[in-house]
Amino acid sequence: MSGRGGGWPEIAAACEQLLNHYSDSKGLIHSVSYSFAKYLERRLGSDRVLAPSAAERQRALVQFRESNRPLVLLSPALGSGIDLPFDLCRWVVIPKLPFPDKSDPLQALLQSTPTGKQVTYMEVMIGIEQMAGRAVRDVEDWGETVILDTNWGGWFRHAAKKYAEEW
Which of 26, 30, 91, 159 sees the fewest Cβ atoms within 10 Å? Predict the structure, then answer.
């Protein structure tokens, strides 16, 4: 994978493998944007994948929850505020770590200071925990989270370790 965590084609290929690996259970792929969600939807080409627009979000959630099929939700807008306990979601994919946009002048300034970097690390860890937590909603629940961004296994996991929950 190239760049910050891999390019779109590499991530799409990995998501396709995961879709096949988890063929008998429901899952959630947290895309980084609606344009990336549409790209992945086209690349995956599966009738299991629901990639709703912002306006279609609620309808897709109802369809996902009520279906007995092993559907997959694909969206940038499901990182928090939804409850998918037990068999409603057994796996989550985080293609890219949820770093703030450095093109925003305020974010660029914040990230240029040691304290700002630590705040960013903390916010990214909270985002990861929120995304992973969509599938695990109870002490007796379980789910698997796959992080595709190579920054996780490289530098970020170690740099932000103090902000991670013990689990």
Answer: 159
